[in-house]
Structure to design on (99 residues):
């Protein structure tokens, strides 16, 4: 394990780095025997392809989580002018002042 010349950091795992703007994902290096110990959740005929598909799906999931935004509405409630501007009261006051 050596120090990366670009970042000056020691890599914590043996992985390839996929960089997209501010996003950095750690993609596993696939060796020919890496699928042998893989226990997939759903049944598949080809363990190599199933592991590749699962890794791709997981990395897409992690990307979606990194770019997720909050769903709580913190904005002030909408104000309705007909509730604050009492037109009937203004009309009655104008009639009272007119007479």
């Amino acid at each position: 394990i050596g120090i990366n010349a670009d970042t000056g950091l020691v890599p914590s795992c043996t992985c390839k780095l996929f960089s997209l703007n501010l996003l950095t994902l750690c993609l596993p290096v696939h060796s020919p025997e890496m699928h042998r110990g893989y226990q997939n959740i759903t049944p598949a005929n080809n363990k190599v392809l199933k592991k590749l598909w699962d890794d791709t799906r997981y990395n897409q999931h992690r990307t979606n989580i990194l770019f997720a935004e909050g769903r709580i509405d913190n904005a002030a409630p909408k104000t309705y002018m007909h509730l604050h501007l009492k037109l009937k009261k203004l009309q009655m006051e104008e009639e009272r002042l007119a007479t």
